[in-house]
Amino acid sequence: MSQVVAKLGQPDFMTMNSSLSIPVDTNHYLICVYHFNSGDIMIRDTAEQLTLLEFSKRRFIHASVLREMK
């Protein structure tokens, strides 16, 4: 995740979600949203602990387009 932040900068919006799951390192999801002129992108990552801004300890899971501008 630190490589994503190095390329795109700090997210425009972040929210944390926690759940009880196995393996333990997937318990805490961070959803990062980036706003671009062409649309919005949502990136999800995970970590074992609630380390909100320690992107070097977080693992990238998924990216998707939330809204595509035309």
Indicate the mean pLDDT. Answer: 83
Give the amount of beta strand, in percent.
Answer: over 45%
Q: Extract low-pLDDT stretches.
A: none
Order of helices and strands: HEEEE
Number of strands: 4
Tally of structural domains: 1
Euclidean distance between termini CA atoms: 29 Å
- Strand arrangement within the widest β-sheet reads 1-2-3-4
Q: What is the helix content?
A: 10-25%
Largest sheet: 4 strands, antiparallel
Q: What is Rg?
A: 12 Å
Number of helices: 1
Structural class: mainly beta
* Principal-axis shape: globular
Task: Write a short abstract of this structure.
With 70 residues, this protein is mainly beta. The chain has one helix and four strands. It has one domain.
Describe the 3D structure.
- The protein has 70 residues and is mostly beta strands.
- The protein has one domain (2-68).
- The protein is built from one helix and four strands.
- Strand 2 (28-36) and strand 3 (39-47) form a beta hairpin.
- The longest helix has 7 residues, at 2-8.
- The N and C termini lie far apart (29 Å).
